[in-house]
Amino acid sequence: MIDIKTYIIKNFTKFKVVHSIPGRIRLKINNALKIPKEAAMYDKYVIEGIKILDGIDNIEFNYMTGSVLITYNPNKLSEEIVIKWINHVLNIVLENINFIHEFGEDNIDYVVSTLEKKLKETLSKV
Fold it and tell me: Which of 2, 54, 56, 103 registers the highest number of CB atoms within 10 A of its CB?
């Protein structure tokens, strides 16, 4: 049986690369305009999770255009590695969605530190 929350989140987080040069990637996020404005308060946690990968310099969300700009050190990373890492971060979130729902509202620091630990443990898979 499909977990409907996971299905919805997975479909809202689909993205594609619309422009890329070494050191800079622009992603287009499906359904970005439908993401609730309240979700923007969690951007900093998403950014922290993605920046765990050494070489990611900056991440900028633009909900009006439905895009994300990622700058990175091309001497350390390639576009392929950055995209693979973003997908890995999304998968960790999806795998832990029930944990996030259970503890996120009352203890966000606990959730963030737990997920950061899981991400750091899996850096070698990228």
Answer: 56
